[in-house]
Amino acid sequence: MFVYGSDITALSAAIQAARSNVPTVMLMDKPILAEEITSEVLQIEGNKNLDGGIWMGILMEMAISKTRDDSLAQVVKKDFNPQLARNAIDKYMRELPNLTVIKEQQISKVSRNKRNWEIVLSNRQKYEVLSVVDASEDAGLLKASGLKLDSAVQGGYTKAKDMGLAISRTTLAVGELDKASSVVFLKDLLDFEKENLFDIGRLRSLAKSADNIGFRSSFGQAIGATAGYTAFFKTDSKKIDIRKLQAELLAFKARLIPYQDVEVKDPHFGAIQKCYLTGVFLGKEVDGKYNFDGNQIVRFSDVKNVLNDIYTRSQLWFLDNYREDELTWKDLLGMIKFISFKGDEVDRQIAKEWKTKLKFEGEFSPENKVTRDQFAVVADLFSSSFAKAINLDGTFVK
Fold it and tell me: pTM for this structure?
């Protein structure tokens, strides 16, 4: 795989591809790597509780922290030290034997044969690769390729509060733009892709401010994983399994939830990520922040349609049990047992692990109401709903 560019977006794309076991060449279009974070002291106020993936890794390395913490990330960002950032990036690079970084060369020629892209540099060095990412400032690689992308650069990214339930399932990156939690879907990347050449497209129209560095890194990690997928599996973008792609990002600690009330140190963080990607609940904007509201009680109507789309037996259970009411633990456990052909061992497991493994507060009672947070954890524990295949628009594959 070949990445062209030198900013935080290009760096994040190259790092992710290399970590995904894809041999990656990164050609810098500028003399300084990730100049926006390695050249001067910054005060970054935005992206609170939205940092993740490679960007969060850099922040935690700067703080000499082995665990990820959103509050600590905010402290680091408010007095962002460029030397510490350079040290963190250097450590990343030393641990990536699959990544080769080239400086002080230009692109001489870009051509496409039947299977590969061939890129020739000004020193006559030649690379044949299956996929390409152009994250450069001037789209130089795209221009040299001669490809014409149909999509217009105009337009922005979807604010979390404006997205629909189905499309939320295809999320590949999140971050704050213009003080709003915003989302990048797979279609946003494929709008600017042709023949396995991925261009960053409308990302170039964003003003490069300190407060959107986290978003641009998250975008870079997503496009690096996507292009890396096509290279690793020797396929094209039309055959991308979105769930496999998301699982790869999750494996490298990407943050794929736009919720600003869920911190990475939350014991249920991973379950809430998978619940969001399954598309069970939408969040709600409160005081300018997009929240999950994990303490909200779940109603039958909140989950009926989604579960019916995933499980055939769910439809039978709701026929006999549905009511316009809130969901109790007795209801939820009965549903789990019916759908998964399990017995009373489910009840015993929940009661036994309530405070230990599940880390729920209070005491277990079958008559208690189920919260969103609890539903996410139990769904992750007993179901394979996240693995259910989806289409590009987020609808479930039938």
Answer: 0.96
Q: Residues 293-317, buried b or exposed e (16+ Cβ, 10 A)?
A: ebebebebebbbebbbbbbeebeeb
Q: Is 287 helix (H, G, I), strand (E, B) or coil?
A: coil
Contacts of 388 (CB under 8 A, 6+ apart): 243, 278, 310, 396, 397
Compute the distance between CA of residue 32 and CA of residue 72 in angstroms, rounded to an integer. 27
- Separation in Å, CA 343 to CA 322, 346, 348: 21, 6, 10
Tokens of 99: 């990544």
| 222 vs 201: CA distance, rounded Å | 14
Q: Which amino acid would we find at residue 16?
A: Q
Task: Give the span between the Cα atoms of 348 and 110, in whole angstroms.
Answer: 62
What is the signed CA dihedral for 14, 20, 21, 24, rounded to 10 degrees? Answer: -10
CB 173 within 8 A of CB 254: yes
Q: What pairs with residue 175 in β-bridges?
A: 182
Contacts of 112 (CB under 8 A, 6+ apart): 118, 145, 195
Whether residue 374 contacts residue 280, with contact meaning beta carbons closer than 8 Å, is answered with no
pLDDT in tens, the chain (398 residues): 999 999 999 999 999 999 999 999 999 999 999 999 999 999 999 999 999 999 999 999 999 999 999 999 999 999 999 999 999 999 989 999 999 999 999 999 999 998 899 999 999 999 999 999 999 999 999 999 999 886 655 678 999 999 999 999 999 999 999 999 999 999 999 999 999 999 999 999 888 899 999 999 999 999 999 999 999 999 999 999 999 999 999 999 999 999 999 999 999 999 999 999 999 999 999 999 999 999 999 999 999 999 999 999 999 999 999 999 999 999 999 999 999 999 999 999 999 999 999 999 999 999 999 999 999 999 999 988 899 999 999 999 98
CA 386 – CA 61 distance, rounded (Å) = 31
